[in-house]
Amino acid sequence: MTMHDRWDRLCARVGAFGSASEADLTYEMISTLYANPSRAYHNLEHIAWCLRAFDEVSRLAEHPDACEFALWLHDCVFIPERPDNEARSAEAATMIAGLLGCENAFVELVRELILVTKHDSCPVDPDSALVSDVDLAVLGGSEEEYAKYAASIRAEFSFAPEEMYARGRMAFLHRMLDREEIFSTAWYRSTLEKRARANMQRELEGWEDRYGEGEE
Question: Per-residue b/e over 175-203, b at no fewer than 16 CB within 10 Å?
Answer without folding.
Answer: ebeeeeebbbbeebbebbeeebbebbeeb
